[in-house]
Amino acid sequence: MILPGATLGMLGGGQLGRMFTTAAQTMGYKVIVLEPDVNSPAGIIADQHICASYTDEAALAQLAELCDAITTEFENIPATTLSYLEAKTVVHPSSQALSLTQNRVVEKEFIASLEVNLAPYVAIRSTEDIDAIADSFPFPAILKAASFGYDGKGQSVCDTAEDVRTAFAALNQVECVLEQRINLEREVSTVLARSESGEISFFPVAENVHINGILHSTTVPSSIVDEQLDDVLEIAAKIANGLAYVGTMAVEFFISVEGDILANEIAPRPHNSGHFTLDACETSQFEQQVRMLCGLPSGNCDLTTPVVMINLLGDVWGNSQPHWNVLLCQSENKLHLYGKKEARAGRKMGHFNVLADTVEQASEIAVASFKALQAD
Ligand code: ATP
Ligand code: MG
To answer: Are 154 and 225 in the same domain?
Structure first.
């Protein structure tokens, strides 16, 4: 076990890295963040910030030298960076697990190999690939860039093969997946922690609402029936075991109106839909990330209260600060801001958790508070 007093490394300086840093520091660890941006949410609170690119070998060597264990908050860290670090110190998740989750084609092939259902899809690497499926693909569809997508970026809705040609050209013909657009009944996700010995602990399954491809709200407990709950956990465990994953990770699911459970994607890190754990579980997903990285036993994942999490995007800022007073004067609301200076549309700036006796009450307060805090 790696115990308090040790130094942990974090690749990536975003909000997930920041919340990891806070959790680790609370437990008595030191944290060094490697992140190219001078002013990052995690870099500004870390014990040390190495300001360098993820491929800067001298910086990576320095990080490995200083840290007892290293993790990441960002799936697009080059897998070669992780394999370089793995040769020098403890690294979780592994370069192998990361390489299976950073490209949508590779990720879907991996999930399909476990006999887990996915939305029907096909890889698109050339205009010939589009010709080949033009008459047979079950449209409507979504074309998604295979790499570097997040928050719905690099995605276009396509109703015909012609739309796919236009969207593929607009993406400069980078490798893509064309995915059938599912009639969604609901979306859920699960955050889990898997230890080196293969024990898995699950946080409660979360029900998610996305707006324009970006997570808007998470509600826990979810409204899915027990049978679906069991299926979701079984699939997530299959995926974590298949990756031989060590650490905290998430799996996103679609539930279709026909009742099919389809895996959407894997996040090899804590997840936005797990932010409710910060205030509504015995252990947060970030403490859990620290625990798994350090070889400590899993914390208790039990829910302590019904909760609704609402994301705060830059859109809420308008020309001034949101009306924080309205939000903070309601004792059920727990505010988390990430320390980002510039509020851009679609940029995740923070979130708040609403804790109440029932999901219905939490939801009512969440809707009213979200409306009231919007800047003029
Ligand atoms: P993130 O990594 O931030 O979750 P992303 O950019 O990787 O986002 P996806 O998870 O692929 O994006 O899609 C974002 C959202 O868009 C989904 O949660 C869902 O609401 C909608 N969406 C994506 N693909 C489909 C689909 N095939 N059918 C129906 N809705 C979809
Ligand atoms: Mg997603």
So the answer is: no
Q: Which residues contact ligand 1 via a Cβ below 6 A?
A: 119, 142, 144, 149-153, 179-182, 184, 187, 210, 213, 252, 264-265
In a domain, 114, yes or no: no
Closest ligand 1 atom to 265 CA: 10
Neighbouring residues of the ion ligand 2, judged by CB less than 5 Å: 252
Query: What is the spatial distance between Cα 343 and Cα 328, in angstroms, rounded to a whole number?
Result: 20
Helix (H) or strand (E) holding 360, with range, is: helix 359-373
Task: Provide, rounded to the nearest whole percent, the portion of the chain with pLDDT above 70.
Answer: 99
Whether the model clears a pTM of 0.90, i.e. scores above it, the answer is: yes
Residue nearest to atom 5 of ligand 1 (CA): 150
The alpha carbon of 252 and the centre of ligand 2 are apart by a number of angstroms equal to: 6
Residue of the nearest CA to atom 21 in ligand 1? 213
Tokens standing for residue 67: 């840290």
Q: Look up the CATH number of the domain holding residue 152.
A: 3.30.1490.20
State the DSSP code for 51: -
Task: Tell me if 360 sits within 8 A of 354, measured CB to CB.
Answer: no
Residue 146 has pLDDT above 80, yes or no: yes
Q: The domain that contains 294 carries what CATH number?
A: 3.30.470.20
Report yes or no on 136 lying in a domain: yes
Q: Is the pLDDT of residue 375 over 70?
A: no
Domain of residue 154, residue span: 120-180
